Amino acid sequence: MMISFYRATIVSVLLVVLSGCSWFGKNEPEYVASVEHEPLKIPVGLDRPQGTSPPVIISSPGMRKPAGDELEPLPPLVVNTAGKQDANAYMAWSAEGVYLFVKDTPESVVRRLASAIVNSGMTMLTRDDSGSHKFHYKQKITDDEGIFSSMAFWRDKRVDFSGTFMTSVRADGENTRVYLLFGTGEAVDTSGAEHILGIFMDRLG
Q1: Which CATH number fits the domain that encloses residue 99?
Q2: In 3-state terms, what secondary structure has residue 202?
């Protein structure tokens, strides 16, 4: 009698365990297999049900895909932002990448950028009134490239950022943002933009 009772108890426990496995193992949540149907059609002569809420459309804005060395696990160049409210130009970051923030009007920044390009030893290829100055930069590889390179201790100091670039000037209220592009119009990777914009920051600051 006791053996039959034990057997019945064991069988009951096994049934509960197996059914639990099917609950949690194979069954998917309801929303996984759900499909969207057409709105409820109300026959002529009948009123629409009361208390129903309109469908909620869930969406999210598109995000910019990271490019260049933004996909690398290395942090960007460490720029000292202490007291940047008092500086006329400093590095900042946006969804489009790093840029140079200048406390001046776009018209003035366009002129000052042209002078900074020439006075920095770069070769001006095309000067544009909108600020899309096209220029060639030849980097001088030295043992000491300045304070910003010394702060980027995790990077190879021998990286050559030489090439043809363009500036992109955009208004930010009464101030100005300066982005850096390749000569083809494509965005420059973070390290290259920081290197060249850092030169302009010294000139415009």
Answers
A1: 3.30.310.170
A2: helix
Are 188 and 180 spatial neighbours (Cβ–Cβ below 8 Å)? yes
Q: How large is the angle between the packed helices 106-119 and 190-204, nearest 10 degrees?
A: 100
For 134-155, the pLDDT digits (tens) are 999 999 876 555 555 555 555 5
Q: pLDDT higher for 146 or 98? A: 98
The answer to whether position 122 is within a domain reads yes
- Residue 30 in any domain: the answer is no
Q: How far apart are the first and last CA of the chain?
A: 95
Cβ atoms of residues 114 and 102 within 8 Å: no
**What's the predicted TM-score (pTM) here?**
0.55
Convert the pLDDT of each residue in 153-203 to its tens digit.
555 556 889 999 999 999 999 999 999 999 999 999 998 999 999 999 999
Domain of 174, in residue numbers:
78-204
Rg (CA), the chain: 31
Query: Domains in the chain: how many in total?
Result: 1
CA distances from 18 to 5, 14, 15, 104 (A): 20, 6, 5, 72
